[in-house]
Backbone:
């Protein structure tokens, strides 16, 4: 399942030249993953409270191709490429909506941990299946 989420670039996201500051790409990717989980019925605050589960970034590879600029409308995509027992890999892209220009690509390893002790734990039952529904 490929999920996408629109994001507008605001002045606060940019440097003095109107170009998105590099660390803000990470924020955009995170928002898309959060909205993807929400779309599938998984609210992260409920996972913490009801299931003692946290999702954390274990590693990330980020390739910046072209700059996003002030007032651009972006399309952020997320797709799970692999599941392991206590982790999942997301492949993500940031595209400029107006011309579908690829601006950024990322591979993100997300680990599933216990909220109270930060120990690895298995992904919730039914989680893998939720991501395969179109």
Residues:
């Amino acid at each position: 399942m490929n999920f996408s989420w629109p994001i507008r670039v605001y002045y606060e996201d940019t440097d003095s030249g109107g170009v998105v500051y590099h660390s803000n790409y990470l924020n955009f990717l995170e928002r898309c993953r959060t909205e993807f989980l929400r779309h599938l019925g998984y609210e992260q605050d409920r996972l913490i409270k009801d299931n003692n589960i946290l999702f954390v970034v274990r590693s990330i590879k980020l390739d910046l191709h072209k700059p996003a600029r002030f007032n651009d409308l972006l399309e952020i995509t997320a797709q799970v490429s692999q599941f392991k027992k206590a982790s999942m890999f997301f492949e993500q892209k940031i595209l400029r909506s107006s011309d579908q220009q690829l601006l950024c690509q990322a591979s993100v390893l997300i680990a599933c941990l216990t909220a109270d002790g930060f120990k690895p734990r298995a992904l919730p039952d039914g989680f893998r299946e939720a991501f395969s529904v179109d």
Notes: Strands lie at 2-8, 53-64, 73-83, 87-96, 101-114.
